[in-house]
Amino acid sequence: MNRIIFFLFLFLIFSPDISQAQAFIKTSDLFQNKDENDSAGRLNITQNPGIDTLISRYILSNKKHLTTDGSQGMEGFRIQIYYNSSRSAREGSAKAKAEFISKFPDIDSYAQYTDPGYFKIRVGNYRTKTEGFKDFMLIRKEFPDAYFVPDVINFPDVNKK
């Protein structure tokens, strides 16, 4: 009997902390006006509270998508032009990246290292394989071992055409 009371007591103590651990984001918080202009209009959102739950889950699930430089990103594709784990892989990856930059200066390139000693060079930020197919065919002429790989890519630049 004392055990049941003890576990019930522990449950009541720690249950508020468990529910506070997850961040909850309201839709109205996403659309707040940063300007303190009194002449601006007001936005009232009336909706089912389940939508706020779905939005919070979506935002939290996307926080795990980090690019190679640690910034937020999205799922997409890159073209891998170099992948090696030999003793000279570091120098080979630097050489491959320099060669790529000289031939394709307008396409972003990313050097990556993964354990247990693999050096990779991946290029581009493509949401789909179809979007990057034209670049892939050009790159494939210079780097015949190139292929598409799924990766977390940078968000597309909305100002770039």
Describe the model.
The protein has a domain at 74-153: Sporulation related repeat (Alpha-Beta Plaits), CATH 3.30.70. Helix content is 39%, strand content 20%. The protein is built from 5 helices and 4 strands, in the order αααβαββαβ. Strand 2 (109-114) and strand 3 form a beta hairpin. The radius of gyration is 24 Å and the shape is flat. The N and C termini lie far apart (71 Å). The relative contact order is 0.14. The model has no long low-confidence stretch (mean pLDDT 80).
Topology, pairings included?
Blueprint: H1 2-21, H2 27-30, H3 49-62, E1 74-84, H4 89-103, E2 109-114, E3 118-126, H5 133-142, E4 147-153
Antiparallel strand pairs: 1-3, 1-4, 2-3
Descriptive keywords:
4-stranded antiparallel beta sheet, 161 residues, 4 strands, alpha+beta, flat, Alpha-Beta Plaits, single chain
Distance between the termini: 71 Å
CATH class of the domain at 74-153: Alpha Beta
Question: Quick check: average pLDDT?
Answer: 80
The Rg value, from CA coordinates, equals 24 Å
CATH homologous superfamily name of the domain at 74-153?
A: Sporulation related repeat
SS-based structural class?
A: alpha+beta
**In this structure, how is the largest beta sheet organized?**
4 strands, antiparallel
Task: Write a brief caption for the model.
It is built from 5 helices and 4 strands.
